[in-house]
Amino acid sequence: MSDEDSLFRKMIDREIPADIVHEDDRVIAIRDINPQAPTHVLVVPKTRYRNVAELAEADSDLLTELFRVATRLAERDGVAESGYRLLFNTNADAGQTIFHVHLHLLGGEPLGALTGGPMHG
């Protein structure tokens, strides 16, 4: 899939509607259309990278910026104090369905443990 074909690219270019909660010159954040928690925001770099590994290799400053934006949004949505989860799905087996890297911000309710074994802290 090319950058021009990315669902996120179409949102960035305003070709399809999105509930945009943050935008600057490098990052856009939108509410997920199929939320898995009361707060479910996707933090997306405007430059397309296939997954977080590709982004980390190419632009670690942009990767850091995704976390900064997510933290500010968690505070603004009122979930910072109670807790929130940040996660990347990387490639198909992890559940990545849009191959334009995006950070999920989830919160607003107890989220429970992730699958795949015991999780602590």
Automatic annotation (TrEMBL):
It comes from the Bacteria. One of its GO terms (molecular function) is catalytic activity. Residues 7-116 form the HIT domain. A motif (Histidine triad motif) lies at residues 100-104. Gene3D superfamilies: HIT-like. The active site is at H102. PANTHER family: HISTIDINE TRIAD HIT PROTEIN (PTHR23089). This is HIT domain-containing protein. It comes from Allosaccharopolyspora coralli. The lineage of its organism: Bacteria, Bacillati, Actinomycetota, Actinomycetes, Pseudonocardiales.
